[in-house]
Amino acid sequence: MADMDWASSDPDEPGHRPVDLQTDQPHPARVYDYLLGGKDNFAADRAAAEAGLRANPNSRIPPRENRAFLGRAVRYLAGEAGISQFLDIGTGIPTSPNVHEVAQAVEPRARIVYVDNDPIVLTQARALLTTGPQGRTAYIDADLRDIDAILGSPDLQRTLDLSQPVGLLLVAVMHFIPDEDDPWALAARLLAALPSGSYLALSHLTGDFDPAAWAGVVAVYQRSGVTMQVRPKPDVERFFAGLDLIDPGVVSLPRWRPDPSDVGSPPGDAAVSVYGGVARKP
Ligand SMILES: C[S@@+](CC[C@H](N)C(=O)[O-])C[C@H]1O[C@@H](n2cnc3c(N)ncnc32)[C@H](O)[C@@H]1O
User: Fold this and answer.
1) 64 alpha carbon to ligand 1 midpoint, in Å?
2) Which of 74, 96, 194, 253 can pair with 198 through a Cys bridge, CB separation 3.0 to 4.6 Å?
């Protein structure tokens, strides 16, 4: 992407406004995009990602495995679990296939509300709104820590029926919420607003399998202004407190219900360094 500091939110939307992309600082959504091989990133994002790769040469593996987990989890929810409404917080830059494409391939009536706080995701939100004719999607520009803004959003209320089960997706986002913002309480507040039969799908970076490499990556991102925190397994399991974990529980991502069609041996736990799980609200 050519360097530019300002872009516009969707120009077809009434009230669209210029958006400050803050291209001089790395942003998680753009660093992730670079690691996935995307083009929606700037020099500061690439520099942070390359420094992360020097600290841990495996750094491209977690995003790839995470995207695959997201796909499997959404297919599971839309299929076996019968979920047709999704709240995807920390959506990221649109990346094919997006959640609505995966869900609507299984359940054409699936409705998805996307939430992210990164201005570049806002400028590309149009790609998230390309729903199939029987479904519906919406995008909310909000911070995960502002639960009232998310749940009170007219876009959410128009799109989801909160009296019916919802699949809450917190995929590769909670490691950007530091302990002092109590990410567990945030997840619990979101789940409290959803009825019995709803699900949480969550993934989270961990230093459990390669502490030295991840200490290096965290230090690199902290120095460049990105708050990131890897967490041990018990801290990741805490997000699922009070829920019924479905098999196989909280595991290294490639171990979570691998597709029978996957060929080759999966990367090892240290290379992946992301836990994931899916659980049902009783
Ligand atoms: C690593 S990406 C994950 C994208 C997608 N969920 C996936 O798994 O492929 C993390 C996303 O979370 C967003 N994010 C980070 N902190 C956030 C916050 N406090 N509120 C909302 N979104 C946030 C970032 O902007 C980024 O788009």
Assistant:
1) 15
2) 194
